[in-house]
Amino acid sequence: MLMDWYVYHGLKTLTLDWQSKRNQNIVLWGYLVVSVGVTALFLGGLGALTTAKGMLPFHEYMLSLFITFFVTKLIFILVMFLGDIGRFFVGIFNHLGKHPQTGKPYFPSRRKFISELAILIAAIPFTSFIYAIWKGKYHYKLHKQTIYFDDLPAAFDGFTITQLSDIHSGSFDNAEAVQRGINLAQAQKSDLFVFTGDLVNNAAFEIEPYIERFRQLKSPFGQYSILGNHDYGDYIQWDSEAEKAANLQQLKANHWAMDYKLLLNENVTIKKDEQSISLIGVQNWGKGFKQLGDLDKALEGVDPKAFKILLSHDPTHWEEIVKKHPVPVHLTLAGHTHGAQFGIEAAGLRWSPVQYRYLHWSGLAEYNKRFLYINRGFGFLAFSGRLGIWPEITVLTLKKK
To answer: Which of helix, strand or coil describes residue 88?
Structure first.
């Protein structure tokens, strides 16, 4: 409310010399109604987090608009505040020097120019966030990465993998836009398709309208998936533990309905021309999150010398356990971070607020010839948008040195 009060007076300065008081009132009261209304709807939607359905797209829209207005107001206030600091020092100077004529204030009035400048600068984040909400969340980007290995079986030289992660189907609000992303992924015609967790936000039913669409993703060597932290239904309230367990069982069934083989601390052998690699999948293991992933169990029956690819949702699993495990895992595929859905990856500059939480948050990392690739996420969560960190479809090519 204090922010709104400050912005209101900034807008009042902007409209002070308007001839039409009606237009002035429309701007001032219109701003208050919209800003306070968005805040009220956002606060009212917080109660949805405790329901069995969790946060629906409408609530995510309200959160997104709240963030958009908050950041815009903050920028507007900062510019106005700098102008007010200038007015303050001018006033002090006038007071000490006794410059103003008798009866005139020491502190000058706000200048309209400062309000105009504040509007202009604040328009940059406002329009950026609106684009992120309107278009950016479905602005699918193809990321291609070639990784070289000393001991890759010769038959797999040039083997391709398409990876999706963090679909978060409960947030989708445009099925045709989602289909464009699916079509782009299928058009890569990779040898293997993998999905690295967070199929839903909370509940199994969220993916069901999209099962047939994601079932279109096929590859010659199969489709494999794992669970992410959101797939266990831990972030909403259930009427009973039995209901929560039934939700997880239904989610697992939905993986099979999409023709994805769900790997739960287990492994499969991928064979090509009488040679093979091991594909390993663990349940979620994350620092600060659910830790059900058991790499030792998942490695049972795997030749320690075999070429190994691990599907593990949270990249902290690689950082904490995988990269120094006594049994070397050549390549780990993860997701989870979303790249915060906001940041900069352009002209050699790479920044996202998520980097203050995760050492590795997108793209390729390497330690002692053990590689990690982190997908930026296909979907979105909470903030119904993406800006700078666009939704990702990954295509990895394995090459023998």
So the answer is: helix
